[in-house]
Each structure stands twice: as structure tokens, then as C-alpha cells.
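Putative inorganic polyphosphate/ATP-NAD kinase 1 (Rubripirellula reticaptiva), 458 aa
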Amino acid sequence: MAVELALCVGNFNPPGIHHIEIARALVRTFNRVVIVPAGPRAEKREQNAIASSFRAALVDLAFRGIEGVELDFSDLENQTSTPNDQLEKRYPGYDVWHVVPEEFVKGGNEGKSLIHKYWCDAQNLWQTANFVIIHTCQTKPDPKDLPPHHRLLEVNTEGSSHQIRSALVQGQNVTDMIDPAVLNFIESRGLYRLSSPAHSRTVSLHGKRGHAFFDPRNKAAAKWADGFAGVAIEEADYVVVLGGDGTMLQAIEKFWERRIPFFGVNFGHLGFLLNDREDVSNSLFPSEDVIVRDLPMLRVDSKLADGSHEVDLAFNDAWLERSTGQTAWIEVVVDDQVRFPKLVCDGVLTCTAAGSTAYASSMGATPMLADTEAWMLVGSNVMTPRNWKSAPISMNSSITVRNLDPIKRPVRGFIGGTPLGDVLEMKIRPSRTAFVELAFLPEHDMSRKIADVLFPSH
């Protein structure tokens, strides 16, 4: 007997308490529940007004505490809206049930339901697919309107994303409609207001709960942590990272999906991603005012030499480098346009603005400020074309780097320093769903740190 899977597709713009209650009811009934936030659609202007990264974060915050619920952000990442008949094909071997509200089946007896009107291959789906009809005790659907294969699921919590959006625009109290974590995220960024959403903001950490992350081998960091009343990560409002940039990268990899800020205190070398220890020591901590910046991650789709694919996220960088004594021959494509038919080099690196101060800098690229609206392509020991070093790339662009001679000139792939093995191709672009919140004191000056690297003292 096939395992039953409930497929719940929706805008979730934003997710409300009624969505959460539906998910909880589904996990009590089905073996597996998958939530799929729909990608942008031309007819849904209000949906396109909120960045996909913010929509993904809201869905994460709403459903992550419900055991048995999985989130599929592929449509948000790919900026598409996959029809339900195609979504079924993502889950071969499962008995898929499409979750719809009762208003979707009204008029089904006459072939005039919303499913008939808007879904692809609607008539065939109506007759052959499985449907879970969500209703309240007052809104039970007419039996004549039900599709041949259905189940009714009563969830007595009403609401809609449209009602929530309208209430937010009008400044009304929505605490009975939205989960507190979701509402806090909305309010902190000014979402669903008439003004543009903010990707940086000033917040207070005073009175908030922080989780300390550090390397116990760093004695100074460990001593500082002893005097900090930290809490478990599950209860934390932010992460305080004690160490250098490497420690910060470890913390980000481990905790970014918590969707909380990272406040770094530098116990390492330059500490581009952290606050200076002296500044923290001279101020009230946790601080009354910190500037939180939303910094993007890179999405890397790698085709490996063994024919497999791997999709990863990188906060700093992703790169290819030669595996043998032979130089690498790499084709570089930017936005479907071949920019380098054959780059003869030791390797190619892509990095975020925040990552430009790391390996990219040692390869000769000029570092960028972390909140620069760009990312970077960098060449390592480029022989052809001669003297080419690097190029800034638009946040809306994608890059494909492809090995032209994998037999004679194999290349290895790395995601933030983690080896992938021999790679045939990497497709890289800024993620549309994953970002990191870095918190800095107002006096933090990354430009000064970059200047110290570019103009070293004698």
C-alpha cells in the first residue's frame, strides 16, 4: 500500500494561524505533509510585492515547529508556479492528496469549480486525483459538488491571507490571526505596508535572549562566554558568535534557518563579519541599538563527475580549482551569454559581497562592503585572457562555470571550503529564499577594515 502524502500548495502571503491549524490537522491524518509556497504569478500582484526571501522566512517561521511538515521552496527559488498535475510527479511512489479549501469545489457538480476554472488538466484531475477538502463545521461542502476521490477534513479555525494583509495595511491588531514569530518578522521589516520593505533595520537586543557560539579552544572567547547568560538555541532571539570570521561562518551554516540575527564579537584576526571587541566592551551588552542587515546566500547547483547533482547554499563563496598539474579550461556563462569561451586558469570563484573579503581577496579581487547590492566572479591565476581578475555581478544574474576538458583537466568543487569532489559544472545565483541576518553596532565600520587590508601599514 502506497504511503499517503498531503500536498498543500498556496500563497501563504502571509501564513496565518488558520494555515498552522490546517497543517496540524493534516499531520494527524497523513504519513507525510508537504507545504509548497507558490512562486510569482502575473495575476497576483500583491504576491509579487513581497520578496521571495521574506515569503520563505515567513513560511519557515510558521511551520517549522510542526513535526511531520516539510517545506518545498523550489517554486520560490525558481520564480515559477508549478501546476498541481506536475507537482504530483515530484513524489513518485506516493499516494498524493491535494489539499484545497471547500470554496475550491463549489460548483463542481456543473464543472464550474475554481479547480475546473484555474487548474491545468482540470477535468482529468477532477476525475482521477485525490482531494482533501478543508472546511469548518459551518461550511461543509454540498455532497453533489465533491470530486470522485475525496476526504473531508474539518478544521474550525477561519481566516485568510487577504484578511491579514488588509488588516496590516490598515494598522489593525492581528495578534489573533498570526503566529507571534511571524508577526514579529513582518513588523521588524515593515512588510505589507505602503512603504517598501526594509533589508536593514535598527533593533534592540536589550532584554532579548542570546545563544553563545564559540570554539572552546579559543580561551579568550570561552572566558567571555562564561560571563554571558546564554540560552539554548531553541529559545534564543539571536546568536552571539565569539571568535573570528571562520567561527561566524560555522555558526551561520549551523543556525541560519532559525531566522534570527547573528551578533559577532571578534576574538580572531580582522573579523570582517563581527563587531570589534573593544566596541562591545565599551557599550551596554546586549545593546540597545544594533543595525541588522539581511545578507544573501548563494544557491549552487553542481553536476558532479559521477553524474549526480548536488544543491548547496553558500554564505561566503563557491569555487572550482584544478585537480592536477594541468591548468583548467573553463567556460563561463553569465545570464545565458558566453562571456569566456575558454578561461585558462587555476580556478574560478564566485562569492557574495560579504565573502569578498575572504578567499576572493587573496586571489586579487577588491573586497566589497557586505551590504553591496552585487556579488562577484573571480579568476585564479588566469592565463587567458591575460590579466583578467574579477567582475562584479548583478544580484539578478546567474553564472554557469563548466569544465571543458574533464578527462585531461579535472577540477574540484568547493562550497564555502567544503569539498564536493570532481565537478563538471556549477550553476550559481543569489538564493531567492535564503539569507542571513548580521547585527552590527552603529560604530562598526567595515570600510575601515577593508582599507586596512588594501593599504597595509609598513
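The first helix runs from residue 17 to 27. The first strand starts at residue 3 and ends at 10. ok done for today
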